[in-house]
């Protein structure tokens, strides 16, 4: 079992966050909830909790308001978004475009792992939620963020995708070998064990974001920093829908090396304040550099491009022209 650093530094400060506007998806629980709480405590002007379940979202708002001293204000807002539905993602982005004056960072944290094969938008759910809808949101929001940033002095928007180095494990690498020619088809195949798809989605994110970031340079021109973070192994309820023996194994690992959700959330804040040097990179443990990204991911630009193109094709089918609009200024 690999050890990991705990008690991470909080790199976001009142100076970097005060009065700013943030979106955090999957913010009703776990790491996303703690990231939103930090942002509120640091004086953010608005923190949008993007949640699929409004009741859970309102409970999270009450919890944050109580601890961050934002009760009675509209700093914390609960907005519905279900990443199982492209229409829901579109509606969420439209609302952000219509209602927010500025968007300083979007933390795309919502994610899931399942042990049964369930479908959404024609794909297995972890693929739809962790990858396809996550990138659809990024692609639709990016031009919106860019335009809003032009109107407010000093805004350098960030899109932070919450990934995981779990996708670099040897078993996932071996599974990827079997599907890498067409990862979407491979993951959707009925023969693919549902529990394997989570790690594969995280690997897919790591490949795709590197190519996407290369399409979006220089940051001074495209205006938006896109990075990926790994929160490390954190004690959350992410594995709630997995078999008992898997849960037991995870609980042993949590006890040995797990970070609290609050500690892990500091990595999300790192992504939200990191500079242009983080563009296309995977940030880990609030540190500079990418010691945790293996060369077979870092250096394989062909695979990065192929993975991005597979995702982009799907997004173009869902929303024709969306990728071209995003790339318009690059
Ligand atoms: N925990 C770890 O060790 C670890 C390690 C590496 C990466 N991560 C990543 O960290 C992120 C947060 O996970 P967590 O550990 O904090 O687990 P979590 O508490 O289960 O948080 C996941 C969040 O995603 C939301 N979500 C799931 N499906 C959704 C959908 N269709 N639409 C909108 N929201 C949806 C969940 O909402 P509901 O409450 O409604 O289900 C929940 O708020 C995930 O992306 C995960 O892959 C976690």
TrEMBL record:
A Pfam cross-reference name: adh_short
Record has Oxidoreductase as a keyword: yes
Keywords attached to this entry: Oxidoreductase
GO MF assignments: oxidoreductase activity
Coiled coil: none
Top-rank taxon, per record: Eukaryota
4Fe-4S listed as a keyword: no
Descriptive protein name: NAD(P)-binding protein
Annotated organism of origin: Parathielavia appendiculata
Lineage: Eukaryota, Fungi, Dikarya, Ascomycota, Pezizomycotina
């Amino acid at each position: 079992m690999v050890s990991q650093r705990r008690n991470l530094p909080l790199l976001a400060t009142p100076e970097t966050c005060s009065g700013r506007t943030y979106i955090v998806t999957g913010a009703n629980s776990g790491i996303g909830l703690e990231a939103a709480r930090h942002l509120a405590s640091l004086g953010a002007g608005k923190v949008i909790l993007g949640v699929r379940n409004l009741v859970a979202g309102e409970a999270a708002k009450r919890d944050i308001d109580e601890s961050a001293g934002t009760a009675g204000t509209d700093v914390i807002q609960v907005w519905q978004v279900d990443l199982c539905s492209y229409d829901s993602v579109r509606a969420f982005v439209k609302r952000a475009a219509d209602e927010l004056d500025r968007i300083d960072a979007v933390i795309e944290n919502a994610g899931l792992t399942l042990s049964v094969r369930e479908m959404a938008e024609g794909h297995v759910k972890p693929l739809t939620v962790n990858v396809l809808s996550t990138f659809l949101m990024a692609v639709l929001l990016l031009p919106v963020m860019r335009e809003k940033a032009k109107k407010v002095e000093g805004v350098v928007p960030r899109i932070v995708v919450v990934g995981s180095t779990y996708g670099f494990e040897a078993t996932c690498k071996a599974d990827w070998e079997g599907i890498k020619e067409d990862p979407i088809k491979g993951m959707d195949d009925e023969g693919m064990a549902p529990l394997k798809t989570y790690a594969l989605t995280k690997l897919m994110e790591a490949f795709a974001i590197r190519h996407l970031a290369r399409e979006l340079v220089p940051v001074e021109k495209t205006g938006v920093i896109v990075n990926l973070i790994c929160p490390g192994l954190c004690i959350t309820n992410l594995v709630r829908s997995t078999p008992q023996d898997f849960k037991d194994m995870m609980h042993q690992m949590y006890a040995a090396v797990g970070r609290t959700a609050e500690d892990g959330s500091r990595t999300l804040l790192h992504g939200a304040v990191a500079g242009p040097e983080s563009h296309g990179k995977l940030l880990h443990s609030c540190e500079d550099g990418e010691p945790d990204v293996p060369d077979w991911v870092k250096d394989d630009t062909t695979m990065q491009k192929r993975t991005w193109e597979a995702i982009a094709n799907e997004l173009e089918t869902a929303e024709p022209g969306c990728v071209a609009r995003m790339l318009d200024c690059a």
